[in-house]
Specification:
Radius of gyration: 16 Å
Oligomer: single chain
Strand content: 25-35%
Largest sheet: 3 strands, antiparallel
Helix content: 25-40%
Shape: elongated
Distance between the termini: 15 Å
Low-confidence stretches: none
Mean pLDDT: 85
Order of helices and strands: EHHEEEEH
CATH topology: Thiol Ester Dehydrase, Chain A
CATH class: Alpha Beta
Number of strands: 5
CATH architecture: Roll
Structural class: alpha+beta
Length: 118
């Protein structure tokens, strides 16, 4: 299983009235991490044909992050896909860009993430 990571630094606009990174920013960082992972592993033709959309997310907050602090986001695909979905530390579904319809995750796509086919 290949892992993908990326650093994030808390900017002034990321900080809420409690003095730490706002929950909405964590969701944005998760999205940014997922997109960067896809762009890093998928060939251009696959990126042009498909787009991932989140179907569920759950965040366990492990502490507060203040302005200027850096955190590292990490994502990976632990298991084989189930139809149009597979877990990647977040739950995602594959969508055809042209039609907007769900797509079955193909073996060549899961291989990009280091996951065996079902």
């Amino acid at each position: 299983m290949r892992r993908f990571s990326r650093p994030f630094v808390a900017a002034p606009a990321d900080i809420d009235e409690l003095g730490h990174v706002n929950n909405a920013i964590w969701v944005r960082w998760a999205q940014d991490l997922a997109v960067a992972h896809w762009e890093a592993v998928a060939p251009a033709a696959m990126r042009d044909a498909c787009i991932w959309v989140v179907t569920r997310h759950e965040i366990d907050y492990r502490g507060n992050v203040a302005e200027g602090e850096e955190v590292t986001g990490e994502t990976w695909v632990p298991d084989a896909p189930r139809g149009a979905r597979f877990d990647r530390h977040f739950r995602w579904a594959l969508v055809d860009r042209a039609s907007g319809r769900l797509l079955r995750v193909r073996p060549e796509m899961t291989a990009l993430f280091g996951v065996p086919s079902p």
